Amino acid sequence: MTELAPPPVTGCRGAPILKERGQREVFCGLTGIVWLHRKMQDAFFLVVGSRTCAHLLQSAAGVMIFAEPRFGTAILEETDLAGLADAHEELDREVARLLSRRPDIRQLFLVGSCPSEVIKLDLSKAAERLSAQYAPRVRVLNFSGSGIETTFTQGEDACLASMVPVLTETQERQLLVAGALPDVVEDQMLDLLEALGIGPVVTLPARSAERDPAIGPNTVFALAQPFLGDTHAALTRRGAHHIAAPMPFGEEGTTAWLAAIAREFGVSEERFDAVTEAPRARARQALARVSEPLKGRSVFFFPDSQLEVPLARFLTRECGMEAVEVGSPFLHEAIVGPDLDLLPAGPQISEGQDVDRQLDRARAARADLTVCGLGLANPLEAEGLTTKWAIELVFTPVHFYEQAGDLAGLFARPLRRRDALRLEAAE
C-alpha cells in the first residue's frame, strides 16, 4: 500500500499526562440528541427533565415552532421533584400519548437529565417495563445525557452503548463502523469500503431500526468517532474485535483508517492504491488551497468533544501547525493511541479539566488559535485571543477525504478573519 508520511521520531503516546479534576466548562450530553435524531429516522428521544432541558435542545437544534422534531421533553414539575406525584405513572401516560400520536416511532429512548438523576428516577426499569408493553412495534431503551454524568459528546456514546446489548446475534464475518456520520459522509465511506472489496459493512447507528446490525464473535469494528469509549466496551463484551486506527480526519488519517481495515480483510496493496489514489490527491489539493494561514501557527485545545487528539494530529502533520496543549475530557488509549503515536512530541497532553488553571495556561501561551467551548470563546476573544468553537467541529461534516479541505478551513477561517481585521485597522 502507498506509504504514509513517516511517524515522528517520538510521538505522544508515552508523554506525561496532566490529569485535572476540577470545574469543567462543557455542554451536557443532551446535546448529542441534536445530531442523533436526524440520523435515526424512526427514533424518538424523550428527555425526562426540566424546562431548561427543553430550552437547551430547542436552542441547540434551532427548531421552528411549527416543526415536529423527533425529540421532546417530559417535564418534571415541582410535584415530581418533591415526591408528591408518581413520576413513573406520569411517564407511562406521556409515553402512551406520544406513541398514539406518532405511530412512525420504532425506537424510543428515555433520556436521563440532571433533574431525573437527582430524584433517582429509575429510567432503566421504566424502559424495560415500557419495552415489554409496546413490543414488538416499539423498542424502548434508556441512557443518561445528564450534565452530572456526561460531557458534550458522551450523549452519543451512552446512546449507542445502550443499543448494543439488544442487537441480535450473528456468526457472520463483517465490519461494523460505529459512530453517527452525516448520511452523505457515510455514503462516501461505504463507497470506499465497497470499492476495496470489504463487506458486508454495517453501521451503528443505522438509519432505521429495521437496519440495525447484528453482532457476534466474527464481527470486527472500527470507530468513526473517538468519543465512543462505552460503545467500544459494549461491543467488546459482545465478542466483537476492535481495529485500532487513527481517526479518519484529513488525507493521512483517512488513509491510515482505511489501511488498517484493508489489512484486516486482506486487501492487496495494488487494489488499495488504485481505490485511494484519486481521493487522496483531491484531499491533498484541497488542503493545499486552504491550509496556508495555518502553517507555522500555534494551537491550544481546551477539553470539549474528545476530538482534540486526532484534530491535533491532523493540524500538526497535515496543516503545519504547532500544538501547545491538547486537552481532552477523557483519553481512551485503545481509541486515540494511534493518533497519539503520530502526534509529534512537544504539546502538554491534559485529561479532564480545572478550568481556571487551564485558562491561566492559555493566557500565558497566547496561542495563535484557541479551540474551546462557547462559554469560553467570547471572554477569550475580549482578551485578544483568536478562538474556534469546538462545537462546530461536531456539527459540521469533517470526516474522510472529501471533507479534508473543509476541516482545515474551519480552523483557517478565524485566523484569516483576524488577519483581515488587523490589516484594516492598520490602514
The termini sit apart by 52 Å
Query: Which CATH architecture of the largest domain is right?
Result: 3-Layer(aba) Sandwich
The residue fraction in helices comes out at 40-55%
CATH class of the largest domain: Alpha Beta
The description of the largest β-sheet is:
6 strands, parallel
CATH topology of the largest domain: Rossmann fold
Kindly give the count of domains: 3
Beta-strand residue fraction: 15-25%
| Mean pLDDT across all amino acids | 90
Number of helices: 17
Q: Structural class of the helices, strands and pairings?
A: alpha/beta
As residue ranges, the low-confidence spans are: none
Side-by-side strand order of the widest sheet: 1-12-11-10-13-14
> Rg, please?
22 Å
How are the SSEs placed, and which strands pair?
Layout: E1 17-21, H1 33-39, E2 43-49, H2 51-61, E3 71-75, H3 78-81, H4 87-101, E4 107-112, H5 114-118, H6 123-134, E5 139-144, H7 154-163, E6 174-178, H8 183-195, E7 201-204, E8 219-223, H9 229-237, E9 241-242, H10 250-264, H11 269-290, E10 298-301, H12 308-318, E11 322-328, H13 333-342, E12 348-353, H14 355-365, E13 369-372, H15 374-382, E14 387-389, H16 392-395, H17 404-426
Parallel strand pairs: 1-12, 2-3, 2-4, 4-5, 6-7, 6-8, 8-9, 10-11, 10-13, 11-12, 13-14
Give a verbal description of the structure:
The protein is an alpha/beta fold. It folds into three domains: 154 residues, Nitrogenase molybdenum iron protein domain (Rossmann fold, 3-Layer(aba) Sandwich); 122 residues, Rossmann fold (3-Layer(aba) Sandwich); 106 residues, Nitrogenase molybdenum iron protein domain (Rossmann fold, 3-Layer(aba) Sandwich). Helix content is 45%, strand content 16%. The protein contains 17 helices and 14 strands. The strands form three sheets. The chain has a six-stranded parallel sheet, sandwiched between helices. The protein has a four-stranded parallel sheet with strand order 3-2-4-5, sandwiched between helices. Strands 7-6-8-9 form a four-stranded parallel sheet, sandwiched between helices. The longest helix is centred in the C-terminal third of the chain and has 23 residues. The protein is globular and about 65 Å long. The model has no long low-confidence stretch (mean pLDDT 90).
